[in-house]
Amino acid sequence: MKEHENIDQLFQKAKTQPVAVSFEKTKNEFLKHLSAGGKTPPTDGKGTFFTMKNVIIMISSLSAIGLAVILLVPSHKPTKKENVSVKHVQETKQLEEVEFVIEEEEIKKSKEFIWPVLETQSLEPIESFRPREVLTPMVIKRKEKYLKNDTRYDYKYYPKLTEQEIADNHKQKKKMVKVLAKFDKKHYIFSRSGSFEYQGKKISIQAFFIQSNEVTNLEYRTFLFDLLIQGRKAEFDIAKPEQENWTQLLGGDLKAMEEQYFSHEAFNDYPVVNVTRAGAEMYCDWLTKAVNATVENDKRINDVRLPTRAEWFMAASGEGQFLPFPWGGNKSTNEDGCYLANFNPKPTTTEMNEEKALSQDGAMFTAKTGTYNPERGMYNLSGNVAEMVYEAYNSKSKPGTAGGSWLNSEEEIKLNGPDPYEGVTSGHPGIGFRVVVTHLNF
User: Fold this and answer.
1) Residue 414, CB half-sphere, CA atoms under 13 Å: how many?
2) Which residue from 143, 229, 428, 440 has the highest number of Cβ atoms inside 10 Å of its Cβ?
3) Closest by alpha carbon to 294, among 442, 173, 386, 113?
4) What element of type H or E holds 382?
5) Helix ranges restricted to H, 17-159
6) Which pLDDT score is estimated for 56?
7) Is 413 found in the same domain as 323?
């Protein structure tokens, strides 16, 4: 026991002393001593102690080197601090994801709907937000965050219809289907088959029915509502009117028209505008299927569609008898000086500007369908809205319009006048449509 204590004391003393001999020299002495059979080499009387000390120093050095290796080799196991850092990053990422969802919900809740204002809001600078939108701190924070990125995010809003709105829409759809299924004479005018001179050529037209009025906001909204009720949102996105064209194409202070014209019930009976050619065709397809789903096979109608220019001209002119206007004659006014159509008249006085001249005919913008005098049961053939047509049957590569609009001149609203919207397929405040149905039994 005492011997062990002495060895420990020597070890501690040797450990604290500075190294007097290099490791290499110590190793050589140690190996030399072993090769001599353990005999003590000649010394000056301190040889035994000196040799033992070298051994101890060597052991100590080896221990120190081993300890250094252990301390210096990096561990692959994260330290407590590193674990906290990783956890913090993960929690922060999760928090950002949750915050994004919450912020998106805040935007949806903060947007005040005036149904059916149908729109796709893009992420724009805060200054361009509409006044009726509530800018909560979270909305502002989110917009500032994503405005710094190059990526643009579009958020689409679909109004949620109440049970009453759904019921009213079904009722209106049923009414539209009924009047078309029986070709109600107040809504659909029959045009017999025949031949007539058109653009210097004699052409033949098959019998068809043509709508007495331009398609209204209410009728087109019924179509869009029905798409939402059926969950057909992708089609809804394509068919919705491009309401922003009121301001983007016409300029001026027309924000109220952009936000209210298609949505407010006061405009129910006004012609729908800013509808794309694709949207109008989808409406026709929807109405065709809606009617045929309610009648017997032998009473199914042919396709509801946009008219050809020749069909439209034949119905509007009474097979070429009434030109250049559908009421006949060369004037846009009657004997009392009252305008017979809604268009863009020239100023009647030198003091009157063009903007004031627009209202001379009784309408500043579009007029209600069914206004002015009907011609052979049809309203607003000249003026009000330019009506979509195709140059030939099933020739969708050549779109155009007929009749001119509230924006156009007297010359442009003539039945055989120039087409101010030739080739236009996008929405426009001056373009609407009325439909025709081929009748196979005549």
Assistant:
1) 13
2) 428
3) 173
4) none
5) 23-35, 47-72, 80-110, 137-147
6) 55
7) yes
Same domain, 92 and 52: no
In this structure, of 84-88, 231-235, 436-440, the range with the lowest mean pLDDT score is 84-88
CA distance 312 to 408: 19
Measured CA to CA in angstroms, residue 317 lies from 153, 197, 327, 378, 420 at distances of 50, 11, 8, 11, 19
DSSP 306: P
With a cut of 70, say whether residue 90 has pLDDT above it. no
C-alpha span between 117 and 238 (Å, rounded): 15
**What is the domain range of residue 343?**
163-438
Residue 77 lies in a domain: no
- The pLDDT value recorded for residue 158 is 83
Inform me whether the pLDDT recorded for 43 exceeds 80. no
Mean pLDDT, residues 263-287 = 97
Contacts of 79 (CB under 8 A, 6+ apart): none
| pLDDT mean over 261-276 | 97
The burial class, CB within 10 Å (0-12 / 13-18 / 19+), for 422 is: exposed
HEC string of 148-193 equals CCCCCCEEECCCCCCHHHHHHHHHHHHHHHHHHHCCCCCCEEEECC
What confidence tens digit (pLDDT) does each residue in 203-245 have? 889 999 999 999 999 999 999 999 999 999 999 999 999 999 9
Q: Which residues of 196-205 are buried (b: 16+ CB within 10 A; e: fewer)?
A: bebeeeeeeb
Residue type, 5: E
Tell me the β-bridge partners of 216: 271
pTM as predicted: 0.66
The bridge status of strand 120-122 relative to strand 154-156 is antiparallel
Please say which residue of 137, 156, 175 terminates a domain.
Answer: 156
Whether residues 136 and 179 share a domain: the answer is no
Amino acid at 290: A
Task: Give the DSSP letter of residue 78.
Answer: P
Q: Are residues 20 and 127 in the same domain?
A: no
DSSP secondary structure letters along 348-373 = SSTT--HHHHGGGGS-SS---TT-S-
Q: What's the pLDDT tens digit per position in 177-193? A: 999 999 999 999 999 99
